[in-house]
Amino acid sequence: MTERAPIFEWLTPIVIGSFIACADSVHAADSAAPPTAAHDVLETYFGVSVDDPYRWLENGGDPAVKRWSAAQDERTRKYLDGLAARKAIFNRLWGQLSKTSSSFSSLYTVADKVFALYSQPPKQQPMVAVLTRAADPARVRIVVDPNALNPKGTTAIDWFVPSPDGKRVAVSLSENGSEDGSIHLFDVASRGQVGEVIPRVQYPTAGGSLAWRADSKGFWYTRYPGPDRPAGEQHFYQKVYFHRIGDKPAKDTYVLGHDFPKVAEIFLDNRFNPSSTLVTVANGDGGEFSHYVIDKDGSARQVTRFEDRIVAATIGPDDGLYLVSRKDAPRGKLLKLDPGDLNLEHARLLVPESEAVIQGGGEFGGEPVVVTAKAMYVRELIGGPSRVAVFNHQGASLGVLPLPDLATVDEVEPVGDGTLLYSIKTYLRPAYFSRYDEASGNAAETRLAQTSPVSYGDTEVVREFATSKDGTQVPLNIVRRKGLVLDGTNPTLLNGYGGYGFSLTPHFLGPDVRLWLDAGGVFVIANLRGGGEYGEQWHRQGALTFKQNVFDDFTAAARHLIAQKYTSNEHLAILGGSNGGLLMGAALTQHPELFRAVVSRVGIYDMLRVELDPNGAFNTTEFGTVKNADQFRALFAYSPYHQVTEDTKYPAVFMATGEHDGRVNPMQSRKMTARLQAATGSGRPVFLSINSHAGHGIGSSLSIRANQMTDASAFLFDQLGMKLPAK
Predict the structure, then answer these.
(1) Whole-angstrom Cα distance, residue 609 to residue 620?
(2) pLDDT tens readout for residues 637-661
(3) How far is CA 74 from CA 28, 37, 68, 653, 712, in A?
(4) Which tens digits make up the pLDDT trace of 573-625?
(5) Furthest-apart CA pair in the chain: how many Å?
(6) Which residues, including other chains, have CB under 8 Å from residue 358's CB and lie 6 or more apart?
(7) 146 in helix, strand or coil?
(8) Contact 279, 268 (CB under 8 A)
(9) Given 539, 696, 700, 701, which residue is catalytic?
């Protein structure tokens, strides 16, 4: 595909922007919004002067910014709390959420125990619990309960790793959704905390991880710099250290990382073979990885480099190193290095590239390849839905694990008795686990199954394709009540993401989508370029200077829904968060006439200054940088904040952010809100909600999530004129 032509001419020094604000002027085209001062701020990039009238809103610690934020949130709360339907919506959603059954995720087997994250509504936070291999939820035993550690519900588990002997569990805990975590050690038998807390192991920029030594007497872990480095560097330069049980953290020894990139993201793993530890190093968020192996004696050897295109790896119980390669195979192929051989040139092909996409590693995905004594299990994607292909050790196909249509498998966990537990998610049923018996080849559902008072028995999911600007076919997963009349009047909520190679796969839609359908709505999930649904090429076509393809795909999805009479412009709303918030900003600025209302959570909007934040620097491998002329050209062409134009009839907008967001600076939402409020000519409101006990959404308490869900629903119901269903 050829690169998009720039949408503006490169002329020297010309001022480009939505408008040039006079010093200390006040804009509020959204007449009910708190007034916001605009100042003359110009910055020049490659001869182009760009205006930034709300730069003063970047400083969250400024008392004036705090007052402005409080006024915005107060206005939003007054509007939302004044809606007659909000209380009823909350009562319905909270009632259904709190009556949802317990659930299990993140299974981790050691010895004869199966550890898991255990959610038990209406408790605010998931807990670490332990089961036997039988995985009987009636015999679950809670080991670490953050709800007991902090009754306010604002302490969250970032991740946990049990020791190989099953006697201890290391847990990263953080506060207020910050994801700023420290390691706490707990004794499994007594459930008491042991040893000293180890700080600076987890942060939203590069995450964090840990792997125990095989003898359970110590572990390797990730650590960020401390006060010995400038404050601006303390969320970069992640390294690997080793901690010996019983020692003070100050004695922990450096192992690896001095020569890693500033934006390195390190993941440690030896769950299937603790005799060796695999170190995966991501070069920021753009999908490049290198790999190292730490031997049992603690020495580290490099196996792959960024340019090798190895996107995932695991050490099998046979000591072989299994690698997912996308070199000359954008959908992935499976390679193997024999035990003791770490020379990538010696890797042999086990599974060639096929029409399915072998999943890579990543922050939110499970192991892409699981190896047992009998077979290999490879998680694959087919345009969004997933499957698990089974192969023998020579790479011959043995079929696939049994699954319903349009399903996702996030976890495949061998439990040490010849069986595997694998998770199953669909749009219309809560998550559950099935057990696969390797000897018989049979699978059966287990009692590890969540139940919900919400039923989708009257609902169907149809898969259609929109045609994007360049002819690309874009999958749409359309959730609708059976018998829906296509007359162009159905309230429709379109959701998308399109970034980082992250795929939007089926998952239980829950009570808020059920409410939407009951009110006559249609819910749609678009699998856009930039994601990983069709492999690396699909991702690359929506990254860096090709990012505009993502927005074109989303626009095509909206137009398809209108053309097929699902809805009309006046009945179409859109929803997205984080990178999906960037999508919302681009959609509403490029095609404001297409949408009636927008919900955008923790989004990125100023693409010229996002890289100045710690996590923004990690994103340059995905978005690009203003330090490169071609990448600046692409960034500026779609940067939502810079594409707001005066007197444009923008849709109603609801933005939400969290004060403790370490992934996307809340200033992004502040600046975009101010600019939209000043420019809109539609008479429709632009609201900003700021939560003082939340971050990016990860680790938020159940009640916070319920209230955020309610706010979005109440806003959309009001703006689209929807009526609350009777039941």
Answers:
(1) 11
(2) 999 999 999 999 999 999 999 877 7
(3) 16, 18, 10, 16, 16
(4) 999 999 999 999 999 999 999 999 999 999 999 999 999 987 788 889 899 99
(5) 76
(6) 324, 331, 332, 333, 334, 351, 368, 369, 378, 379, 380
(7) helix
(8) yes
(9) 696
Residue 23 has pLDDT above 60, yes or no: no
Q: Is 299 a catalytic residue?
A: no
- The first and second tokens of residue 169, run together, are 């569990």
Report how far apart, in Å, the C-alpha atoms of 286 and of each of 127, 257, 326, 424, 436 are: 32, 19, 14, 28, 35
**39 is known as an active-site residue:** no
> Of 692, 695, 691, which is closest to residue 710 (Cα–Cα)?
691
What is the number of helices (H) and of strands (E) in the chain? 12, 43
Task: For residue 470, give the DSSP letter.
Answer: T
> Which residues are within 8 A (CB) of 707 and not within 5 positions of it... i.e. 6 or more apart?
90
Task: Measure the CA–CA gap between 93 and 514, rounded to whole angstroms.
Answer: 10
Token pair belonging to 354:
């096929």
Q: Active-site residue among 103, 119, 578, 700?
A: 578
Q: Count the neighbouring beta carbons within 10 Å of the beta carbon of residue 49.
A: 15
- Distance (Å, rounded) from C-alpha 248 to C-alpha 142? 27
**What is the reported pLDDT for 14?**
30
Angle between helices 702-719 and 63-81 (to 10 degrees): 70
Q: How confident is the model at residue 286 (pLDDT cuts 50, 70, 90)?
A: confident
pLDDT at 21: 39
User: Which DSSP symbol is given to 724?
Assistant: P
Tell me if 3 sits within 8 A of 546, measured CB to CB: yes
Mean pLDDT of 317-339: 96
Phi/psi for 345 (5° steps) reads -65, -20
Beta pairing partners, 381: 357, 386
Q: Return the structure tokens found at 319.
A: 């000591």
Tokens of 272: 């299937």
Q: How far is CA 466 from CA 453, 473, 491, in A?
A: 34, 6, 19
- For residue 143, the Cα-to-chain-centroid distance in whole angstroms is 27
Nearest C-alpha neighbor of 231 from the set 571, 727, 614: 614
What the block records as the tokens of 344 is: 């990538």
Angle at 605 between CA 600 and CA 607, to 5 degrees: 150
Percent of the chain with pLDDT over 90: 85
DSSP string computed for 140-160: -EEEE-HHHH-TTS-EEEEEE
Residue tagged 């440690």 (tokens): 268
Comparing C-alpha atoms, which of 261, 153, 246, 264 is closest to residue 208? 264
